[in-house]
Amino acid sequence: MNLENHTSKQLPLTTQRSFVNAANSLTMIRLVLAPVLGWSITHGHWWLAAFTMVGAIASDVFDGKLARSQGTASSFGGFFDHATDAIFVSTGAWALAAVDLINPWLWPFIGIAFLQYTLDSNSLRGHQLRTSKLGRYNGIGYYALVSTAVGYQALLSTTLLSPDRLPMLPELLSTLKSALGAAAWLLLVSTLISMVDRLRHVIVHR
Of the CATH numbers 1.20.1440, 1.20.120, 1.10.150, 1.10.3290, which one belongs to the domain with range 17-205? Predict the structure, then answer.
């Protein structure tokens, strides 16, 4: 689910260069779902966005397991997996910013951080991506933020959650919206810290 978690489990990587396999096909689902997520959020189709998140998370959970079980894990597969994660969550963050639920700075920095992560690891030359603990936590946080915001809006769109039935609902929803906004700012700060730490590591060790 996170952008830097899969290579933390060091397993033998195949030298297979074929892009077409079952695990990469599962990963591709997130790439296809990214524009669906962006469109559904910006057009207020929150339940469609929620189901899109479920599908994306399921593909992220099982693609790595499938690659390891079938012996098709590769450096390229790891890069493709992380890239689709970055595209998917940055699309979600962009859409949430477009409807004024979070700040507009998080989504571009997700992409910039992934680019730095890729170049630093030399993954474009076939090397494994080098992980960091903070980067893994950030990756989880991106998914958690988008999932929570989408779930909150989906529930808000139902008639069951009406102020008439739940008098405290408006105050609770206002608090949750503020918490989401604060979480997005914290993730932005954490992303910047991770980028600076990775840059420091590069300067010190090269």
Answer: 1.20.120
